[in-house]
Amino acid sequence: MSPFLGIDHPLVIVRDLEAVAERYAALGFAPRPLGRHPWGTTMRLVQFAGSSIELMGVEDEGLLDRHAIDGFSFGRTIRDQLQEREGVSLLALHSEDAEADAAIVTARGVRCQGTIDFGRDVRLEDGRTDRTRTTLKIFVDPDLPRLGNFAVHQHRPDLIVRPEWLAHPNGATGIDQVTIMAGRAQWPAVRRRLSALYGDDQLFESADGFGVRTGSGRFVVLDKVAVERSYAPLPPELSLEERPCCVAIHVAVPDLTTVASFLASAGVEFTQAGPQLRLRRAAPYGNVFLAFDASRRLV
User: Fold this and answer.
1) What CATH number labels 174-293?
2) What is the tens place of the pLDDT at every residue in 250-294?
3) Domain map (residue ranges) of the chain
């Protein structure tokens, strides 16, 4: 059994998927080739050994409501939120037993809209065809639409992970932290959500806010003032956002020298805070501040 519901992949929804993927590549990431979902969205995956950043766009609006369950449509949710702005939409949580994990969080009061099962055919190197299978358990709170989650259980990880897809020139090995921006009046609602997912014993306090430890990585909650103090001024779309939302992704790297060389070549402005390099612009990367952390190496 894997550690409980670790950070698997934030869905960073963008209007020009290829342009954003190129910007990630300029930072030293190696986005995978274009992939498609059965509900009309496309993605370029920045994949690590136990997590990934999923850059996502909308391709076919005629498919948006495929696999809809209990009032939730994955494709339509992505399309509607993208019409509002770019940024993190849903955030996937890693599971190796979706039914059992869903039972734990629903017992704590998290609503599960239901189950989505899907797969796709893949051609193996020897020419044979096999099929992936993925199970999603949907946990969406209408009061926190930009903090929705789903547990993702990949039944055939051998078909979706290859060593060459994990080799990023900047050395990135995984997601260490996702930062949530929320007004202080909204902190009790966000705290209740995180506690229901992970339990009170996994919550922690910080100088500027609070957070929760997941099975892999952590969520840190800050208000808008602390976000701008920690990273940089918010881009216009995020500055106008009044709902709690994810605004930063920290990835682990073995050293900062290699990362800094990519940033310099790309002409990217950044600041250094201890063992971290933090990009000062979020808009080019899907309204997400990216940070590179050399204090921990995730493998």
Assistant:
1) 3.10.180.10
2) 999 999 999 999 999 999 999 998 999 999 999 999 999 999 999
3) 7-164, 174-293
| Beta strand extents in 147-275 (DSSP E only) | 149-154, 174-181, 203-205, 210-213, 218-222, 245-252, 270-273
User: Is-same-fold flag (7-164; 174-293)?
Assistant: yes
Q: What predicted TM-score, i.e. pTM, was given to this entire model?
A: 0.95
Q: Which two tokens stand for residue 72?
A: 């939730």
Q: In what order do the strands lie in the sheet with 87-95?
A: 35-36, 41-47, 52-58, 7-13, 87-95, 149-154, 134-139, 114-118
In terms of Cβ atoms closer than 10 Å to its own Cβ (0-12, 13-18, 19+), residue 70 is exposed
Tokens 């190197």 sit at which residue? 125
CA distance 282 to 25: 15
Task: Determine the topology of domain 7-164 in CATH.
Answer: 2,3-Dihydroxybiphenyl 1,2-Dioxygenase; domain 1 (3.10.180)
pLDDT tens readout for residues 209-218: 999 999 999 9
Q: How far apart are alpha carbons 194 and 187 in whole angstroms?
A: 10
